[in-house]
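Q: Structure tokens for this one, please.
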Amino acid sequence: MVLEARGRATDDLVVRAGLALGLTADVLSDRLAADREAMSASWTRWADEPVAPSAMVRLIPAIWKSLPVPPECSTRDAATQWLASLTEYQGMVRCLSWDRRTAIYIDPDGSIRTEVSNGPGQQVHPSSAVL
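A: Here is the predicted structure, written as tokens:
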């Protein structure tokens, strides 16, 4: 069972388990809403913490290499332009993770593909890497 193995469950499973334990639907609804609110607030605090930007290059599908962002790239635009201009990585997708919410993907030709932002439970940054 996913709840036992990972500690995660769908709302339906939580409600069924709670009802089986004698909790009312109102209590379960209130607890689920409070839990979501607490999780969202916790994630927001974590996401708002300042972090150093990071850059990655996709060497092959699912394999990314980390690159140090030069200290002189102190703005998001400067860091994006630096990453897009790296000729040794032409033909490869690149990603600038500016903060914990935002990732900017650069196409193999050096043009900016997209900027994506995430929220609780969403992943926008590359998740596999060669360090």
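A few notes: DSSP finds four helices and five strands in the chain. The chain has a mean pLDDT of 86.
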